[in-house]
Write a structure and sequence with these properties.
membrane; 2 domains; transmembrane; transmembrane helix; polyamine biosynthesis; alpha/beta; Related to spermine/spermidine synthase family protein; 13 strands
Length: 583
């Protein structure tokens, strides 16, 4: 019988697997112990809060970027046309990003957050080239096309990242359908709060440094995006950074300004000065061929004067409407008003055509202008005499305080606040006009410059409000009224009108001017006396449009879009499109 094998030999262990190596096992234990010690309350809290921090950081940047995108388009298209499609585009892009977050994450070869800096870096480049095609794109479609390529992708990727960060967060005490929608609604609410707050903040500080200019802000935000989501992909943005810093003349650097000057010279225009400010992009331009100088605010002109043709006493204005405002001095009253004893309140400065004439006549003049750069440029580059009282403030709050807390009253009030193709509605409300009525002396006269498409409902409401406050008024157009056929062909009747009103109910009449009224100015000789009167009935609607109240301005803002586009088209005939684009 063969001998039996040792049973213990069959059970003897073989070679020890690498994973169970005693040294390695001990090392793993030490590593786990070290991790356990380092996992503090602070570490766990940071890990739990990380998705929230990431989400709200992206939403903060998106809210700021929403305003910056609008600011960058306003010099080319105007603030109102730029805003028509903007909220709809933001809403659509947010929905696509949030609803398709899972699809976006799976389809993209990289994390969505790492693409945002690259897109943001290229935004100024896209705007630079597409804005040069603004005449082809038009003010109606241009902002939509440009923001679809620039702002929309950033918004889609932001919404997708936020949805991913907040996935699975559901308040347990709420019903399921409410809990499911809570992250999205909270994100939207936070975005709107940031958008509103940052818009007000930017309007106060824009232009103070290069980092709070339109292009400077876009580059600053792109840099912050790159810090939040660092990756090698940002190297793809180097060509865009080079273009923006060296060739984008919208960036307010000395080299960019020099490049802008050369481009404008090719169009026979010269840039005198430029600045970004609280009411928009402000610049002073001069036509080399025609010999006049204008003050620009975004896609609008605040006034202009001839450089080649200077009067012995006064500058010769380009626009007749500003001369017509001076006709308040010609309105007859019970007793003649002596210039040296009179005082005037001018709301809205422009280049200072009307207040300069008042000052030259010896009238004590107070100017209320909200934009400090407009006031600086009017004083520096146009013939605004220094002997006046300047108030850099919001006209609504200033006049309310003046009417309520002082007994100062004025012989003349000039209301000239139009800009950008739309009425600043708070300055045409019943409450504001009643305040001006209070500030007017019993025999005083007010002249209100109103510009817009007078076929639309808003002008009718504004003028009816004026007629409700002031009992005796007459309305004059800047130029002769077009024929009905011309209005049908144009589809609009965009014009400047001046409404002269008295505080008393006596009929408003003008005295015959004397030589001194014209200040040896050819423009005043031609345009001082109002000529193209229009009947008040033309501004009365068959339907009662009501009065414009403080609480009703928001409802009318949408109706200003058509007027703003019409103004954009008019401005393109006054100054060449290329000059507008070379802001």
């Amino acid at each position: 019988m063969p001998p039996r094998r040792n049973a213990n030999r069959a059970a003897a262990p073989g070679p020890v697997p690498d994973g169970l190596n005693p040294d390695k096992f001990e090392k793993e234990l030490r590593s786990l112990a070290k991790k356990a010690k380092s996992r503090t309350w602070a570490t766990e809290t940071r890990e739990r809060l990380s998705p929230y921090i990431s989400a709200f950081a992206l939403l903060t940047l998106a809210g700021i970027y929403s305003n910056v995108s609008q600011m960058a388009l306003s010099p080319i298209f105007g603030s109102l046309p730029s805003a028509v499609w903007h909220p709809k585009l933001i809403a659509a892009a947010s929905f696509l990003g949030w609803a398709g977050s899972l699809f976006i994450e799976r389809r993209l070869p990289v994390h969505p957050a790492t693409l945002i800096p690259v897109i943001a870096i290229y935004v100024p480049v896209v705007q630079f080239f597409l804005c040069n095609q603004s005449s082809l794109l038009t003010a109606t479609w241009g902002p939509l096309v440009i923001e679809s390529i620039t702002l929309a992708p950033i918004t889609i990727l932001t919404a997708a990242c936020v949805a991913s960060d907040l996935e699975g967060i559901r308040p347990g005490l709420l019903p399921k359908f409410i809990a499911d929608s809570t992250p999205g609604l909270t994100s939207l609410l936070y975005f709107k709060v940031v958008e509103s707050f940052s818009g007000r903040l930017l309007s106060q500080y824009v232009g103070r440094t290069i980092f709070v200019t339109r292009i400077g802000l876009e580059m600053l935000l792109a840099g912050i995006y790159a810090i939040l989501a660092p990756s090698k992909l940002v190297l793809l943005g180097i060509p865009a950074i080079i273009h923006t810093t060296l060739f984008n003349y919208h960036l307010p650097t000395p080299s960019a300004t020099l490049a802008l000057q050369e481009s404008l010279k090719a169009e026979n225009w010269t840039l005198i000065d430029r600045r970004e400010s609280v009411t928009g992009y402000i610049s002073v331009l001069e036509s080399d061929n025609q010999g006049f100088r204008v003050l620009r605010a975004d896609h609008s002109l605040l006034g202009g004067e001839w450089v080649k043709f200077q009067g012995p006493q006064m500058a010769e204005p380009v626009y007749s409407v500003f001369v017509m405002l001076e006709a308040v001095r010609l309105v007859e009253g019970p007793q003649p008003i002596i210039d040296s004893e009179a005082n005037a309140l001018v709301i809205g400065l422009g280049i200072g055509t009307t207040p300069a004439a008042f000052i030259t006549h010896g009238i004590d003049t107070t100017i209320v202008e909200i934009d400090p750069v407009v006031y600086e440029f009017a004083s520096k580059y146009f013939q605004l005499p220094p002997s006046h009282t300047a108030v850099i403030d919001d006209a609504v709050s200033y006049t309310q305080t003046l009417a309520r807390e002082t007994d100062q009253r004025f012989d003349y009030i000039i209301h000239d606040v139009f800009t950008g193709g739309a009425e600043p509605l708070p300055l045409f409300t019943l409450e504001f006009l009643q305040g001006l009525n209070t500030l007017l002396k019993p025999d005083g006269v007010i002249a209100i410059n109103y510009a817009g498409d007078i076929l639309l409902p808003t002008p009718k409401m504004v003028i009816q409000t004026i007629l409700h406050v002031f009992p005796s008024c007459r309305i004059f157009r800047e130029s002769e009224a077009p024929t009905e056929e011309a209005i049908r062909e144009a589809g609009q009747d965009f014009t400047n009108v001046v409404i002269f009103c008295k505080k008393s109910e006596d009929p408003l009449t003008f005295r015959n001017p004397v030589a001194g009224d014209f200040l040896q100015s050819r423009a005043r000789d031609m345009f001082l006396v109002p000529k193209h009167e229009t009947f008040l009935s033309e501004f009365r609607s068959e339907e009662d449009v009501g009065l414009l109240m403080n609480n009703g301005t928001a409802e009318l803002e949408g109706g200003q879009e058509t007027s703003a586009v019409g103004h954009w088209e008019v401005m393109r005939t006054v100054v060449p499109p290329k000059v507008w684009e070379l802001w």
